């Protein structure tokens, strides 16, 4: 694997899921694979799971880890090409990336959507600079439009919880929120589910359809009850409007997932990428109930990251 | 040892002091005991000594260390049970703890008193959630009412400086400050001294008596000169009123420790947990004088932490 | 080497440059030299290259690394001797340093000029406290008046790019900026170039002459075109006025380095310590052009640090 920013960087999804599950059985099985190599974890935004799971995965592989909280620890970054930097920005992202090229064997970066300009977000104004200027493999720790290490952990978790022969029904449901939230987790989950052997539907209120470039031909149902019927897995996530970018059109029905809504399902397992706003996106009863596999999902972030780092190291070590 | 949040988690105080002193002689004697295990150091508040000494102790034991500055690096946490999270908080502490359960073999946490609500602080509103939800051993790096790793370091330091057969006289003296300060260090020191073979008294101005739940039958003297007489060890620390919670009733006498006040003592050794406000809590002359064992105390934070981590690892490795 | 804060701490500059170049060939050749020893990296200011390159250098030598972002992670520091600490400061720098003495085998510190008081900056009000109170070797990661690890990296880079017998002409040129910038990089470069076998000149607008204590007899030319003529290396850096401390007297000519200005040189290599304000200090075309050796310079920060850490470890290990 030469880089990891979308599902397209994976040659064989089933193979990498199996690999991650083998790593979960024996996390230290490749503990010197990364010896003498350095991964830079660059955070332009907050992180708990991604920060910790990436560090654990890297340590399990014997990689040196450099963590940079770019905003607090380094310099205010300029992102515009050709900018005359006579304002608040002190270092151009291009130069920061070139320096990371000199210091790291792998660069992993978290760069959220700004939620101001649809064009900038859709074009991945920050990640694209890493893809363009990095001379070492780039790994996304969530970008404006995708969160692929989360999605891989989601696929691992679904695989672990599939105990029947038939295809499971997987529903991605919109949830309420109080602020305009990015589309990355929703987009990414939609993209990866299309690569899995599942029946996948999305449900969200009108006005909240995700970008067609990610959802493609996936069925979108605007009635949550109808969508949840017979579901085996329900993925709960909020996002703001994509069409009317970052707007929050009024929603009259109550979309918060509750135990009552689970009754109509096939004892669906409930998933969420975390952090979650309890009693806004999900009720306490669901979060703390037996259907939740949310913490298992969080744990699988380690093995998702470790499988990807390991594949990247295979590529580096083969040179 | 299954957890470490109070002196009650110690089976035999003399034994663990001896163990810490053996570690001080040879800090790398158990350098692979923690191999393949991870300790998460979670800071909800500032830290210098605790941060560094815990990292050194963990590294000396071969533990992987994950440090999380929760406020700056992760998400704004909700602490209220059942909260409808439609405000500023992004992640519930319960969920953060459950995720730490997935990632760490040991969770260590610093969570100061808020100094707003006596009830919340007395009930350890944050640490109690860690004790309730953590599925791995929890270590306090100072909580609302106690600072046990400091107190253990204090016991080690007193032991190192006791060269006579007779019981030493140990005085905990209140010191001036400009802000309402928490009771954790005072409470904890009082609690631990009651387990040591020492004559222990507390001195503070009227209105500043510590919580009886910690001081129990310890003699409290409101006249500092009287209390300091013949002292072998003087522990200097400020705290605000406990009865009139977080208030700072006026104090007319000068309680700042000076060389003059030491004259009446048995060449008392002076202790402080640091950070100290020079020339407010203690004079420069005392801080920089021959009676101070304050930096030795700071150094012993390493061996205090390492002895505790080692005991916790014994428990984990025996499973 | 007992400490490293100026060029005077180097016994033989050519030897240490050679050592750094050997390390660059084989960075892991001394990978257990620092085993069981701890370096504390204390940042009182922002850092990207220094932070990451110091960590890599330390890891390459097997050192344990403790990083402390003092302002954000620990306590607000007092710097004034004898201060009555009844204001905003919580811990005296003396006490923080004494604690670091207990925890670290080497202390490295970044402490920029405050740019308020010429006297405080010239007297190195912060670094001098480390030099006075540290009982272990002190390494400057840039102080008020010098940036020696940068200067050593600059010497390494110039050495790598000298392919002719004759002495190269090296020009330090002032560049425009929008804020009053410290003199540390300029001072330091001037100081180190006087130890190298090069023809060295400085060019800056009138009113911007650096401190004579650093530039000594080096020729200062106020006409940039004249200075750049036949240059082999051009070091670009802004600084504010030293005489009228931190002022920014008006400059009428355009001092930003462009390709046009390079025409008059001997295909000069262009250097900058980074971060750089593009199109203010340097044009994009120079930054991204073939003459730039700026990223190579950034990479050499690793080997500069590693050579110095290695020399310090030789001293420690010989005790």
TrEMBL record, chains A, B, C:
Domain of life according to the entry: Bacteria
A Pfam short name: OTCace_N
Residue intervals of the Aspartate/ornithine carbamoyltransferase Asp/Orn-binding domain: 185-310
Enzyme category, top tier: transferase
One GO MF term: ornithine carbamoyltransferase activity
Binding site for N(2)-succinyl-L-ornithine: 142, 177, 237, 277
Reactions this protein catalyses: N(2)-succinyl-L-ornithine + carbamoyl phosphate = N(2)-succinyl-L-citrulline + phosphate + H(+)
InterPro entries with a match to the protein in the record: ArgF'-like (IPR043696), Asp/Orn_carbamoyltranf_P-bd (IPR006132), Asp/Orn_carbamoylTrfase (IPR006130), Asp/Orn_carbamoylTrfase_sf (IPR036901), Asp_carbamoyltransf_Asp/Orn-bd (IPR006131)
Residue ranges constituting the Aspartate/ornithine carbamoyltransferase carbamoyl-P binding domain according to the UniProt record: 2-160
Keyword set, alphabetical order: Amino-acid biosynthesis, Arginine biosynthesis, Transferase
EC number: 2.1.3.11
Gene3D superfamilies given in the database record: Aspartate/ornithine carbamoyltransferase
GO biological process: citrulline biosynthetic process; L-arginine biosynthetic process via ornithine
Positions with a binding annotation for carbamoyl phosphate: 47-50, 75, 110, 147-150, 273-274, 301
Pathway: Amino-acid biosynthesis; L-arginine biosynthesis
UniProt cross-references to SUPFAM superfamilies, sorted A to Z: Aspartate/ornithine carbamoyltransferase
Family assignment from sequence similarity: Belongs to the aspartate/ornithine carbamoyltransferase superfamily. SOTCase family.
Described function: Catalyzes the transfer of the carbamoyl group from carbamoyl phosphate to the delta-amino group of N(2)-succinyl-L-ornithine to produce N(2)-succinyl-L-citrulline. Is essential for arginine biosynthesis.
Listed NCBIfam families: PRK04523.1 (NF003384)
Quaternary assembly: Homotrimer.
Protein name (database record): N-succinylornithine carbamoyltransferase
Protein's organism: Chryseobacterium taeanense
């Amino acid at each position: 694997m030469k880089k990891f920013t979308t599902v397209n960087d994976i040659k064989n999804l089933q193979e990498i899921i199996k690999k991650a599950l083998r790593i979960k059985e024996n996390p230290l099985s490749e503990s010197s694979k990364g010896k003498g190599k350095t991964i830079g974890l660059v955070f332009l935004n907050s992180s708990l799971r991604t920060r910790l799971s990436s560090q654990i995965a890297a340590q399990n592989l014997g990689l040196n880890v450099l963590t940079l909280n770019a905003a607090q620890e380094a310099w205010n970054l300029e992102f515009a090409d050709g900018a005359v930097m006579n304002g608040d920005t002190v270092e151009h992202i291009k130069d920061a990336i070139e320096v990371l090229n000199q210091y790291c064997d792998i660069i992993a970066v978290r760069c959220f959507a700004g939620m101001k300009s649809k064009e900038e977000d859709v074009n991945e104004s920050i990640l694209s600079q890493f893809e363009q200027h990095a001379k070492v493999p780039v790994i996304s720790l969530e970008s404006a439009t995708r969160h692929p290490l989360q999605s891989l952990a989601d696929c691992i978790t679904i695989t672990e919880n599939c105990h029947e022969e038939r295809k499971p029904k997987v529903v991605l449901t919109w949830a309420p929120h109080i602020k305009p939230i990015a589309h990355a987790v929703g987009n990414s989950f939609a993209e990866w589910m299309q690569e899995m052997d599942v029946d996948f539907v999305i449900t969200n209120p009108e006005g909240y359809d995700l970008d067609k470039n990610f959802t493609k031909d996936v069925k979108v149902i605007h009635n949550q009850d109808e969508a949840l019927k017979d579901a085996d897995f329900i993925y709960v996530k909020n996002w703001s409007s994509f069409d009317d970018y970052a707007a929050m059109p009024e929603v009259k029905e109550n979309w918060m997932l509750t135990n009552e809504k689970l009754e109509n399902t096939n004892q669906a397992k409930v998933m969420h990428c975390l952090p979650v706003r309890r009693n806004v996106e999900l009720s306490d009863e669901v979060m703390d109930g037996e259907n939740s596999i949310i913490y298992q999902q969080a744990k699988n972030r380690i093995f998702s990251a470790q499988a990807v780092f390991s594949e990247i190291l295979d590529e580096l070590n083969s040179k």
